[in-house]
Target: Class I SAM-dependent methyltransferase
Amino acid sequence: MTDEHERMMRANQANWDARTPVHLVSRFYGLGEKLDPARWFAAFEWEDLGDLAGLDVLHLQCHLGTETIAFAERGARTVGLDISEASVAAAAGIAARAGADVTYVRANVYDAVEALDGRRFDVIYTGKGALCYLPDLDRWATVVAQLLRPGGRLYIAEFHPLLNALGPKPAEGEGTELLLRHDYLGGRDAVHRNATYTYTDGPAVEGATDSYEWMHGMDEVINALTTAGLGIRRLRESDELPWPRWPQMVRTPSGWWRLPEGEPRIPLLYGLLASR
Model:
């Protein structure tokens, strides 16, 4: 990773520290209501993950730990890791209030092996807006392989590159058609954002508003994993999201959201199971 990438990741760390108080009070996360970690998971994720009772599970880039708690509730010995000190502190408080036994560690994902003192895991979980904040997937995959026990599994539930390539809202004078506005494939420079508001509702972010994202195509993800020695066991593509990215999306029986009938069915989320 270059010095410039390290600078960008430090900016991201500061940005997530600044985002955290906004997210804690948002309706999006709903932390003032009854905690429901399972609502962030598609049914197929649990099918692919299987029984987690008694296993060591690591959630990389866990932010507020709203998903991390779900693993503890299923009987796993659970660790969450995130680059943001504010996020980790908030996640620990949320888990404590929920009575969930989760350990949280503050570290850059690239430093996870050292930060976790060489501990190994049966399952590593990551996704839903995580990989785009990593500039080097080859190095990330190597870290994942080092953290997994032999036979251990990685599960990625991540926004599909096609979703990231489609604009979230039409420009002035345009209709509601979904248009390609961003790269699907990686390989270009980071996308720099200077956003006062985050993807949630709530007040403006105070302080560090700069962030950097990197596009990663499906081939880049899969090739990074196989180069690091992991085998791909299953790949799913889903047309549903846990929240409505576009106003025309409709609620499904699962409680998630998809584009309405009559519009093309396109992948919005993917689930990838790999093993060491």
